[in-house]
Design a protein that fits this description.
Elements: H1 8-16, H2 23-35, H3 45-58, E1 62-66, H4 72-78, E2 86-91, H5 94-106, E3 113-117, H6 120-123, E4 131-136, H7 143-150, E5 154-163, H8 179-192, E6 197-202, E7 208-213
Parallel strand pairs: 1-2, 1-4, 2-3, 4-5
Antiparallel strand pairs: 5-7, 6-7
The structure holds S-adenosylmethionine.
């Protein structure tokens, strides 16, 4: 998928000059590629390292991930938590969540990762936390709703990252076609026009929106 948006040679060069993939993450990626019909959804080496680096910089005590899949990105984000950090992750497909859970339990972060099954729209309101970092990576048609639901619970000065904001390049078409691409395009405009946040869209993989809740907003 990312070969459409990122020059394959540049991708390979960047991977060759970045820290090698952690063996557990390699195992998750390999198993997902071999056994999962939607293997392209896994974050992968470079994006995973980026998430880890952001988490290491922020040292977030409370992380929310919306869209666990097979657990790759959750483990990348968990790597930057302090000792008392907790990551909550939500997945609606029980078989994916069970697989992710098995990987969490093989990692150093197992006891600090809370995995929740169900529809994120229903699970999020039950999590009474003040989030330091939120990773949006579930159903694209609900990104605006997740943004609105989570922003009040985000610590002032806290961070949100949204994946797939280039949606395989489909948001670049004129007119934008398809339900998901239209939803992502609407989300991108929603964030751009939201005075409560500042943001930068990064052209990593399928596009990542890095958002900061302005700290002057309580
Ligand atoms: C792109 S994948 C997540 C990839 C994962 N974050 C990673 O980087 O490896 C999106 C996941 O969100 C899940 N999902 C979609 N809609 C959801 C919802 N409403 N509630 C919870 N999970 C949902 C899907 O089942 C899928 O596993």
């Amino acid at each position: 998928m990312h070969s459409d948006l990122v020059l394959p040679l540049a991708q390979a060069y960047a991977e060759a000059h970045s820290t090698p993939e952690d063996p557990l993450l390699s195992a998750i990626a390999a198993h997902t590629r071999e056994h999962h019909a939607h293997a392209h959804m896994v974050s992968g080496h470079l994006q995973g390292l980026f998430l880890t680096m952001v988490s290491r910089m922020l040292r977030p005590r409370r992380i929310l991930e919306v869209g666990t899949f097979t657990g790759y990105s959750a483990l990348c984000l968990a790597a930057g938590m302090p000792e008392d950090g907790i990551l909550h992750t939500i997945e609606c497909r029980p078989e994916d969540l069970a697989l992710a859970r098995s990987y969490f339990d093989q990692s150093p972060y197992g006891s600090r990762i809370r995995s929740h099954g169900g529809d994120a729209m229903e699970v999020i309101p039950g999590l009474q936390e003040c989030w330091d970092l939120v990773f949006l990576d579930a159903d694209k048609v609900n990104y605006i709703r997740y943004h609105e639901m989570v922003l009040p619970l985000l610590r002032p000065g806290g961070w949100m990252i949204a994946d797939n904001v280039l949606f395989h390049g489909q948001v670049l078409e004129d007119p934008v076609k398809g339900r998901n691409a239209k939803a992502i395009d609407a989300y991108n405009r929603h964030v751009r026009d939201d005075a409560r946040v500042e943001q930068v869209m990064l052209t990593i993989r399928d596009g990542l929106m890095l958002i900061r809740k302005k700290s002057e907003l309580a």
